[in-house]
Amino acid sequence: xxxxxxxxxxxxxxxxxxxxxxxxxxxxxxxxxxxxxxxxxxxxxxxxxxxxxxxxxxxxxxxxxxxxxxxxxxxxxxxxxxxxxxxxxxxxxxxxxxxxxxxxxxxxxxxxxxxxxxxxxxxxxxxxxxxxxxxxxxxxxxxxxxxxxxxxxxxxxxxxxxxxxxxxxxxxxxxxxxxxxxxxxxxxxxxxxxxxxxxxxxxxxxxxxxxxxxxxxxxxxxxxxxxxxxxxxxxxxxxxxxxxxxxxxxxxxxxxxxxxxxxxxxxxxxxxxxxxxxxxxxxxxxxxxxxxxxxxxxxxxxxxxxxxxxxxxxxxxxxxxxxxxxxxxxxxxxxxxxxxxxxxxxxxxxxxxxxxxxxxxxxxxxxxxxxxxxxxxxxxxxxxxxxxxxxxxxxxxxxxxxxx
Length: 404
What we know:
By secondary structure, the chain is α/β, with parallel strands linked by helices. It is 23% helix and 29% strand. Strand 10, helix 5 and strand 11 form a beta-alpha-beta unit.
């Protein structure tokens, strides 16, 4: 039965996309979004890039402001905190009142992991998760100043690139032996290291960090005395509200492939949702794509229409004016074919038994789009032709595989 009222807890991208998708699928009931940020829902990718450099405004990345919400018959309650959920009564208790629901969507996201040890430095320690965080960083960015970014993952590298492009001194300090080690194969890590080193970022991988008054000591030998620190060491899921109400959590709110929790009236989407895997355990994805996809699937569940098919995981990042993209499954154990078409144009194609299973690219936007369409189609290719930049990509397809 179609729900008569939907409450969405969380005021981010997934929440807004879900609400809009419900209306687009002819859902007639009430929709209420409750978010604890004072800003209406916005997209987060630009927080570490164009927002901190002043190249775009918060309004330009806002998905659902008050006017757009009213036009769609969506009630938007910002600056409001949900304190408790009563699953039996199907109500949520907030600091402004109690609201009932037929279906509840948890889009509670996460919060930046804190770097507690850094307090010993006495320096400002910033994080990047919200618009308010981005504004604090923007105020610190000025030519000639010095920042140490703790964390060499995607977020840390984006912050480093933004600060370096503002003519700042930038050190990136990463505990792992290479950049983005959790998600990138070694060859892509080396590509990132080259990109940042060429642009004047000082990299410290495999770092043992000592926090001392006024700065850091790396591996007991290298001293860094920056003006401030940025902690880019991941996020912690906001799943405490779900856990208090008895829902299963595992570094996120456990859901099935349709983002349904164990309670038939409650779904979870976006960064806070951890999907149960057939082989055991759960996987949680933090990406723009997953926020949108999970929101659309949840909206279809509620509106009782066919949900979209599962998507091949895809991610992108902009650094130093270059677009970096990844899609599919990337493993260092794959056969990795590099295709270099220019000084700043290269791809890594991951093969298993001649079948493309994943791809990453620096630049090469058009070629990446072609390969991304082949993923999940058991597309077989000739590795020798694939690595030859003088041949078009389609020349690498095996004869029995149609180029479309």
